[in-house]
Every structure is written in structure tokens, then in C-alpha cells.
Predict the 3D structure of the following.
Amino acid sequence: MWACLTDIAYQREYHGRWLSTDSWKLLFMDQLGREMEIVPNLDSTGFVNVGTSSSKLSTQEMIDMLELIHAYAAMHGITLHDGLDGI
């Protein structure tokens, strides 16, 4: 999952911004339908997700998430690598 998210983070802007792999992961988890818990940050200048972690996904949910990631990459011409280059 992280290799795919890294490829997306390096190859695709999101609404004019380059996002971190963690931010992309949250976007895909939201698309998966996982409930997010958003609270104001400590200085009230923005918000923080304090909800679901990807480590708590079931095996089927992780498979579904990887399918979402691969479909998104295919739709946007993003090249995904297996993370095993050079081995």
C-alpha cells in the first residue's frame, strides 16, 4: 500500500497541492467508507483526523483499498511500482 501511495504522492497533485502519503491514505480510506473522526487542532487553525487507522482494516477492507488505489492510479495515468525495484 505505501509504495502505491508514494507513487501517487510523487506523481499527482490534489486540487493544486502536493499531498503526503498519509494524506492520500486518508483520502482513500474515506472513499472506502471508513468513518473518520475530525476534531479541531490544538490552536484552532485547522482540523486533525483522530479516527480510524489503516492497521485496523480487515483483510477484505485492505484488498478493497488497494483496488481503489489501483483504479485511481489507472484513471489518472499514474505508474505504480511494486516497491521491490533493485532486489
Summary: The first strand starts at residue 38 and ends at 40. The longest helix spans residues 59-75. The CA atoms of residues 9 and 17 lie 10 Å apart.
